[in-house]
Amino acid sequence: MANLNTVEETKVGRSSGDSNRSIIIIGALFFIFGFVTWLNALLIPYLKIACELTTFQSYFVTFAFYIAYVVMAPVSSRALNYFGFKNGMSVALIVMALGALLFIPAAMTRYYPLFLTGLFVMGSGLAILQTASNPYVTIVGPAESAAKRISIMGICNKLAGAAAPIIIGSFLQLEKAEELSGTTNASALDEMALRVIPPYIGIIVVLLLLALWVYKSSLPEVEAEEEEDEDSVAKGNKSVLDYPHAVLGVLTLFIYVGVEVIAADTIIDYGIFQGFDFETARNFPTGTMVSMIMGYIIGIIAIPRYIKQENALKVCAILGVAFSIGAIFTSGFISVAFIALLGLANSLMWPAIWPLALADVGKLTKAVSSLLVMGIAGGAIIPLAYGALAGVGDQQSAYWVVVPLYLFILYYAVAGHKIRKA
To answer: What CATH number is associated with residue 286?
Structure first.
């Protein structure tokens, strides 16, 4: 994505009151990111029963949601160029509300493809919203404190992820859902599916109110800097493939997003597999999110004062391997706790992979950045591999899929990011 700055009039200076109001708005948006994204952990086991799905089929929830980031990548840029960044965020929130609206007829018909369509539309709106809102984290306050604001937004995101399954789960009465597993009573399944409607009506209302709030707000407009001269890049005869560390970085980020989604979105279903009821299991994603927040806090304190980014990535990858194997060879609450601790292992990967992949790429920074954003598709593909393994084996042994992935991340931290010649 291009470097961004405010239009000239916003550069003159903004009052601390305006900055604080802007930070509150952006914080609310990042909360929404987390709330909507990490609801998938609840939807996977819920729709698995309500729509009578196999384990593999249930993981198309994550596929439909995250594949939107790739499909909508070019659309996001065009939409923001047309509407502007501020109004584009309002439009994106409305798109997300339309996706949530599709859950109503989907619940009334118990038609799984319609649920997936709603998730794709919500993911599409979220892709536009993230593209627009991330630059505001930098421009709504002093540049020297941008890293602090980024950390605050990350914490807002994960707090929402911790709260979402608990809040929405209380509406869905998940403690009764397990009794319907394998039932032939269609009316009971219909009644279960209809429980989705009230909370999603609430989500629609919140999204529309946020859209109005952003539209009426005093957020500054943002515009992209002029595009780099393509001829100046071409003269160097360089392409992304000339930077192996960048290509490996894109693959590493693809893998990271996949293992992060597995850690967060499989834990409720895995808790049920380990013998916990829905009432208890719905709280498990909170453990994953709290682990990630702990990692953020450690990163804020330790990087780069006490540990370099690449060394933090090494530690996180090693923890990922250790916690995954711990989950595979233990049982009950201890095994589930190891999955939750994967949140800690994943917490510092995103901020570490980006600078390592972008190092020394010069005028291809935007091209590599765009590919890194598309790497979010790992959240669509890799959980399907977990679901396939869980379908032919069991949900515990399926976690073997993440062990070689964490080892690849470790390779990138140790050696991959240093490769400068193809």
So the answer is: 1.20.1250.20
